[in-house]
Structures are given as C-alpha cells and as structure tokens.
Amino acid sequence: MPELDISKYERKIILRNTRVEDIEEIIALGRRCFPNMEPWKRAQLESHIRIFPEGQFCVEFEDRIVGSCSSLIVNFDEYDDQHTWNVITDNGYIRNHDPDGFNLYGVEVMVDPEYRRMKIGHRLYDARKELARELNLRSIIIGGRIPNYHKYKSQMTPREYVAEVEKHNIYDPVLSFQILEGFAVKRINTQYLPDDKASEAFATLMEWHNIDYRPKSRRVYRASFPVRICAVQYMMKKIDSFDEFYTQVEYYVNVAADFGSDFVCFPEIFTTQLMSFLEEKRPDQAIRRLSTYTDQYIDLFTELAVRYNVNIIGGSHFVEEHGDIFNVAYLFRRDGTIEKQYKIHATPNERKWWGIEEGNEIHVFDTDCGKIAIQICYDIEFPELARIAVDKGANIIFIPFCTDDRQGYLRVRYCAQARAVENQVYTVIAGTVGNLTHVENMDIQYAQSGIFAPSDFAFARDGIVGECDANIDTVVVGDVDLEILRRSRNSGSVRQLRDRRRDLYRVQLKDLKSD
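Above: the chain sequence. Below: its structure as tokens.
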C-alpha cells in the first residue's frame, strides 16, 4: 500500500502582511463585512502599504482572503480623547503615521462573515500584539464599534450599554470580543464613525497595555529636531582648470561645515563653469565634453561630504547615459553613500540648445536628518511632484536652480514658497550668479538663494527662514525644525495635508516601466 499523501487533506490558513495585489480582494471583503458602510478606497490601502507595510495584516484561507486589519503608529498624547476615526487615521490614508510614536492604533479589523468561527479575528489581534512587542510600543489603542447598541438605544445610554456588555449581561459581537482580547474601555467617543448606524456613531476607546514595554527604549520625546541648512549662491566666473573648480567648491563646503550645517546645497548645472576652459563653441558638443568630468565631479563631492561631515546636494550636472544627456542632481551623504535624482521636466531652452532628455522617477531619500527630496529648477513649477514627494515622506525639498533673469528666478522662488505652504514642507533654493562670458548659452545669471517654511505661527515670519542678498557671491545658513513641522501637520492653523479632499481628487504617479 503506498504512503498516504496527507497534503491533499491540508487546508492552509496563512497570516501575513498585506500586499498591493490583495487590495481588490480586501475592498470586496469590506463590502461583505460592512454592507451599509463605505468600503476602503484603493488609494487608502495603497497608502497603508507604502507608509507602514509591517502594520497591515491579512489572513488567507484556501487562496482566499478572509480577514484583514490595518494600523498605524501614533503618539496618542497628541490627540484628543474624543477624536474621530477620520482624524486619527488621516481620513483613512495614515499619512500621520509616526514611526517614533508610542502607541499602535488599530484602524480596522474585518473578518468574512462565512468564516467567523475560525479564530481569524484572534489571529489578527495576536499579530498586532506581537508587532507592538517587536517595536517596543507602549500600548495598542482602538476605537471599537458597538454594533448591537441600536437594539438597546431606547432603553439605555451608550455608557450603560457598555457596562452591561462588560458584565456579560449583553453580547456585542465587537465589544465582547475585544474585552476577551484583553482590551479595557477608556471612554466612549461620540461621532466616531458617522456612517456606523448600527453603533449610532458611538465607539469605545479601548487600550491593551504591552507589559513587555521598556520605557528606556531608543525612542525619547523630542522637544525639537533642528536641522541646519546652507544654501550656496555660487559665483560663475571663468576658470582655467578642474583644480580651480575644486578650490571654489571646497571653500563653500568648508564654510558650511564651519557653521555646523547638516546639509549644503549647490545650484543647478553650476558645473558648466568647467566649460569656460573647454573651448567648445557648440553648446550641444560642449555639454558632452562636460559630461566626461562626471567621475571627477562625483569623486570630489564624495570626498568633501565625508571629510567635512556634511550632506551635500551637489547641485546638478550633465551626465551622458547610453548616448543621451540628462540633468542629474546627486545627494552625497556624509557616510559616503550616493543617490541621484534626474530632472523630470526639461525647459524649452534645455531641449533646444542641449537636447536634454527627461527622467521619469520621483525619489525621496533617507538621510540622518530625515527624508528629503530634490527637485531641479523647472520641476518645482509643477506642483504634482512636490505633492508626491511629501506623500512619500519628504520633510525638506532642495531645489538647485539656474536662471538668467529676474522673471525666471521669481518663478522658481514663488513656486518654492507655494510648495512649502501647500505641502507643509521646508523648501530650499540655491542658484548661480555672475556670468560666463566664454560659454555659449550661459551668459548671465540671476539668483537670490533662500530657505522657506510653511506660513504659520510656529515658523519664521513671512515663511522665510533666511535668504541671500541678490546677485552676490555668498551663502545663507538657517535652521529648520522637523519636530515643529510634524506638530504643525497634526495641529497647525491649517492642515493642508490632512484636509485634502481625496474623495474628490488625487495625484497618481504612473509606473512607466510597466506601461
């Protein structure tokens, strides 16, 4: 008799993190679980997975998703106890997720009605508890529905109803389960979920305490998170060798380091100064010769970033790749690592004189001072790019620019300040001044470098952290505070990031690689 194949009897139940390919199935699950409530939007679930993937779980049984839950981390002390679901979840997009917070907040748990006696909810709650232990979080907080309350609303108040459920005199499918999971009722919230008719919009604020929590963890409350920025207003003048360029660049980096800067930002295509000794009159050929200095340029800035212990946004430089010329900005971290951002929009002038090709990806970079983005000159005039960068976590947008007249400069400046207001983000512009009389299409320069903040009480007056005098060889140094920025996004006079009508409109980034 052959060995019995027991695998054909298996009915595997799998708990795992949610993936993008699960989204449509989870939306359908929501319709089955809560037929009278609005289901998840795809953009909301995509946001969950992008921002906090380890906090999103689902249960798969026989190749079907039969349960799911979403969560985020918050510092709950910053929220009103009588918060609503929309406030605590950022309207379901969890962009207020705080990796340095103390509390895991449960956004939602769903279990397919056909599979409700398989301990699926228990598995999901256990996954959250294990995550809280792994991340050393103080507690898990949830806003729990009380879906049977509508049957008793004429007989008792919500508080009396909760008390009866706690005594096991009344069974509530959500509250009774959460009590068994070790959650304690803290208070009752009104208008928590207005479309939850079964609960009459009431919810119980409940908490599970992590007894393994270690108060002396790596996380401490920050009164401030200052970041010092130096924006260079670079003088374009004739030079006779790369060594002269090296000397001028090192001078600015040294100045930034002497001021204790965390970042120093150089202007767009300031390496065209090298063309003043290349003696090539045709602009399209001159930039191809300029691109041969790419290795020396990268070596120079990598060395300076490490030696002077400062993160450098190395302006931008023309780079040849596969026969095409791109305008590329590099981030040289002070730990010696390098990232790059291609210019997304080429100006008519760049296409006409230099034949510049355009990049297709919007990057946000991790640094030792938080997440940043780089948007080169013309790119800042397209508001969608800044919005996408901030949605990806950027707190500072660096804008290397090169303009030849006041009108062009003001377009960059006004748009940088607008982006700071629209997205509650710091923006930094760094431009070139002077002239290159020996270089075609780089005749004159106009700039006034500056550092800008959102316009609110917590920030600098007029939203200007600092700015150079126009058209002179100098730098501006200013401090921005990422903790103030974080708090302003949660509780400022206006909260553009939270108050966007995502039900009405949204910005979507296409993946051209898959088209």
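Residues 13 and 368 are 41 Å apart (CA to CA).
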